[in-house]
């Protein structure tokens, strides 16, 4: 078969295939490829199942179905509506894959004839009993009545068949069945008291003779005894002729309550069938409550339900039960098995009778199918096998029902189709227990499935407001209520069916402007109180947004369109999202925020598939505790909340400490909780953030404590998440000697980490922990020579260097000598983030830091190295910057062989060292451009004509795409603005543009200001890069703006709003840059940072932030007067905040800006308009009113270090911060 064959659907916890059609042939069972299948019709849908919870396929038709029949030899299924009858054939791939396809359509000749009953005969024959005719079709390929045609229901081409013959009937056919040999047909009409027997006189033509079997009441059931399994072997062996075959047996039930058994006699008998014996189904259960409901006598007998088990299958089941006991450990004799062995010695057919009210009686018919049966007295009479009360099979009184039963080894199965209940129940028990003389009723059978539902396709599912039930609605408007029982399964509730269907609450109100900025014209939007999910207009991109802060937490693209989304919350802050496609569902759960991108914030932890079933997913809804209901056609499929551990990624298994060898399954709610649980203190992210917060001593102390615990710890033991330390002690690190990581300590800890797997961290995270340990050990050597800002930079550089070295070792691209890999000659240079650059810019130990980096690269700084390290951006000293540029000029000059002065032109001219460059050109006799360049450089570029010539050369070089050399000629013409613009634009090197601008004119030059204000600041605003914004303001000597950029709300950010833009480390730099007056955005920034830290699993650091932060007072007028307008004007004139000396002196060389200064203060600007001034005064008045209200409140003791309380400011209570996060 082609590779596009249907896939394997997911195994579901419960299947509700739909409301069974209330007909006599709504359910059929058959065996194909040694596996039992159940064919089940519901509305216009044919369901094929292989177990109570395994739906193999759904086949839909264009009309309601009334009957289904199947044969086990070929696996073909015939299914009919009132007008058309179809044959579906199995298609196999390999040994396990099977599905069914429409193969034939059977067209009847009579107009207005409606199909009522279907039956398979021998050699692929199908008997169709209709309201006016009885027709016979052949499904064999060689049939003479075949012709290709297009089926009107789907437009697909299928073969059409005409009947071999048709016979008009007097009344609509209710039963029509072939005998096992195919020589007889038994038929009966609705309300008939006669069973018509058709005996074939010719198998080629429709020639019959007839006889009738009279009954005293309406015939309610008939069926032929199935042929024994060994009979086919006897037929094909040639040993025995047809005259030696066993008799054919017909069972009939009439409204008089008797089961009649009819047998064929010899060929010389006058009657085709003769009555063999009868069983009174009513008196077989003497104490049934149906016998005396009100004490009056009834003209009709009470309802009884019976099914017959052939002797060969019954004896095989008893043999299997006996073999099971023999192979088992039980040594005592089973009286039930002894009883059954005695029963099977008589090879009986077993008749099981039910009253529908919990009572059962089993009777045996001895040698009923044998041609030579014993003629002993009473051999024709039925004998009793078992009786039971208290069975859980219950049917409404005096309602129609059909039962089918079979054995599977020693297991016993019963399908009970109740017409009034509109459901099919699958009961399962043990053969020994069910036929035991003494077993209790509830022990004999257990219900393993109850199939019900809608008869039309389901269009909507919705959880009830109470959360304990489910509502479903079909396309015809039918509403069904479902409740969850004790087993966690759905069962049809008895509530009213006309309750208005509630609107979905998933479509919560969502910020339209935010939606447009993330995805234009989203096709699907769902949201709850915490998260929102959006799908792009083409349906192939999913975006998940945090509604509190607007972060885009997850973006994912798919190969097929997303049809729907559903949110679910297992607990506060534990969210799940189901992504619905045509034939599958992906379930995503929230994880932690991680700085390394290989671990997303949302993980796909479960996948559901209905591939190969047929219809697409019509609706989906979450149930309690993470279970889910899917609507597929008429069916509802329920999946449990368990996830197979083996299906999780290895990284997730290790992170949550779940392995297939320990636990096969994990609940979805538990997995979601583990993925967002607080991280242990030995997690590498904890160490990294401690260093970024300026507390490397605490990180070193944690590593000391970890080593002490690991020395006496083995895998499987409990390792305390806080290492048996108080949180305050961990953060303060009172033991000063533990802040130093000695070589012996590092070696011992690395050995422990190599030998033992730490809990709650994955293998990848444990490798990261080793690198953090090595980086911290390297940094600790310089802890006395560098300040905290420089240490943060050095730690990040060292950590990235270790990661790059590991990646290089994993894929060596150097040389090998004696099997040993040698690293490549190019040095490894990490690309430093603007976070580290901003910290390093405010360091007071920049020169020692630069010396460490320069020494590492052997005093050979190239521009690629300097650009990646950001040296020219964070060096604040102009002389140091010029020395670095001179070193870059020398390395650029020697980059090629022979040296090329053109490569160094940009650097020398940026340093205003034209003479040095001229000297290099004098000795560059090997260069083809030496003579022209030397003559050109000898000009006096203070003259306008020389500058014009330099610019012309620059434009000519731009045409040749030699942009850096062109920028050098712009510098030669003293046009630094054009040079910087060229480097930042066509050259695409912003860092080089910054370096040239700072080296050529200094930080106070208009070129630097224009570059920052026109390019870098808009870029930072658009990308939401707080670090770059703060650095730009710091370069411009705008201390207040540099601090504000780290905490103020971001505006005008592009579609990718990420939590990285609100990195908690921004608070650390803000704390160093802020003036003694707090920002109005400071409080919200602290809450935001604490939320991010908690999402990262760093609950200890979040607690530290909100509990130990010190607020400064906001600036206010010293003596507010009674005249509010005067006070407002004073505040507006003096500014809302007053600048004070910064904690850092990196801005010392710049003059102190005036209060409330603008970023463009150095440029001449017109006076503000009157409306702007009025608005500023109104805002100041409102702020003043709020400060007055705060002053009147009762002050609370602060938990930070004791200070004299400010006279005009009340510090926010830290408990209010803690309450915001549940601490």
UniProtKB/TrEMBL annotation:
The keyword Plastid does not apply. WD repeats lie at residues 451-492. SMART domains: WD40. One of its GO terms (cellular component) is RAVE complex. It comes from the Eukaryota. Residues 1148-1223 are annotated as: Disordered. InterPro entries: DmX-like/RAVE_component, Rav1p_C, WD40/YVTN_repeat-like_dom_sf, WD40_repeat_dom_sf, WD40_rpt. One of its GO terms (biological process) is vacuolar acidification. This is RAVE complex protein Rav1 C-terminal domain-containing protein. It comes from Oleoguttula mirabilis.
